[in-house]
Description:
mainly alpha
Amino acid sequence: xxxxxxxxxxxxxxxxxxxxxxxxxxxxxxxxxxxxxxxxxxxxxxxxxxxxxxxxxxxxxxxxxxxxxxxxxxxxxxxxxxxxxxx
Length: 87
C-alpha cells in the first residue's frame, strides 16, 4: 500500500486531534503530541473495525473521520482504565 506524504500528514493530523479530544473527554488532559497521535490512530483502527460491524455510519470527510477516531479512542481509553482498575 502506497501512501503519499499528504496522506501521512492527514493521518497524523486526524490522530492528533482525535487523541487530544479523547484525552480531554476521558482523562481530563492530553497525553502530549506523540501520545495523542498514537491514541488517535489506535482509536481510528478500533472505530474502523467496530463501527461497520455495528452498522454505524456518520458520514464522509475529514470531520467524520475525526469523530470516528475520537469515539474509538475514547473506547480504548475507557477499556484501559477498566483494566488498570482490576490490576
